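Minimal example, chain plus flavin-adenine dinucleotide.
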Amino acid sequence: MVYRSELDAALTEAAAAAGATVRDSTALTTLEQESRTVTVKTNRGDTLRARAVVGADGSAGRVARYVGVQCAQVDLALEAEVPVDERTADRWRGRVLMEWGPLPGSFGWVFPKGDVRTAGVVAARGNPTALRAYKEDFLTRQGLNGPRPLHDTGHLTRCRRPDSPLARGRVLVAGDAAALVDHWSREGISYALRSGDLAGHAAARLVTAADEAEETPTADHYGRQVDDVLGVEMRASGALMNLFARNPGLVHTALTRLPPAWRRLDAYIAGRTSVAGIMATPMARSATALATRLPRARESAPPAIRSTTEA
Ligand SMILES: Cc1cc2nc3c(=O)[nH]c(=O)nc-3n(C[C@H](O)[C@H](O)[C@H](O)COP(=O)(O)OP(=O)(O)OC[C@H]3O[C@@H](n4cnc5c(N)ncnc54)[C@H](O)[C@@H]3O)c2cc1C
């Protein structure tokens, strides 16, 4: 569990210590490429010229539009950060809560962070009224609707199509800008960190590329590297999401009644395995095969599960 402000500040400091020039509160406004140069204009009136650009400007960023990123799944996530007293904070130490929601593929979460709890809900975009009602109900049931939230936000999360581009010429995309987000959990921080690392190395190779003939293979190589690791994870999470949206009761029963499945889920939440690790088990493969033969479940969502982790 981290506060994003602290994680982001630590990453920015690490980048600065490694030699990056940090320009805070500066937005890219336009981007164009000519010959072997990318020209970036900012809202502060600067014009920057680069041999390579990595767009990591999030899911609503401009670089994704420039590169032509295409999405297979768009969800709305609503989240509140609520202060809690010391007793509640102690009770929640080392625990997270996930609850399967009433809308297809939706869930709610409570993540404790010391004297604050982050709680939210996510579901497919397109039914904001139902999602807001679910959030209100969820926060009330968790006793989090009383205190005034420190933050109350809503954002879209986007998952790429497998064939969506990851580069256009010397411009690469990483993280949410590339729509690299887990279909099921909608987690994207680890995807952003890992694709950012790969994109940084690819950008360095683009800078030293001798000529245009070397550029295309470099961008292609970045796409393959992303696909080999993150694409595999996204395909597995897409399969789990299909299974979960079709038959949440089956997924819930497997996760809570079968100890190996529970241990995998716990390991996933604690960051020791990926959704691909869950879906690679013979049990998950059998469940996927079974679910495709079953009619779509109509029952209401199963109950919440708790995971005790070493978070
Ligand atoms: C409510 C909610 C809860 C979530 N919870 C989790 C979670 O618990 N765990 C998890 O792993 N993931 C979670 N995610 C997903 C996660 O937030 C993202 O996947 C992750 O932040 C992606 O990182 P990023 O650096 O690619 O993009 P972002 O974190 O969105 O960062 C993009 C940055 O680019 C900047 N920017 C935007 N436009 C421009 C521009 N034109 N010029 C310059 N800069 C620009 C933005 O200001 C921002 O600083 C959640 C998402 C939502 C919406």
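The longest helix spans residues 212-246. The chain has a mean pLDDT of 90.
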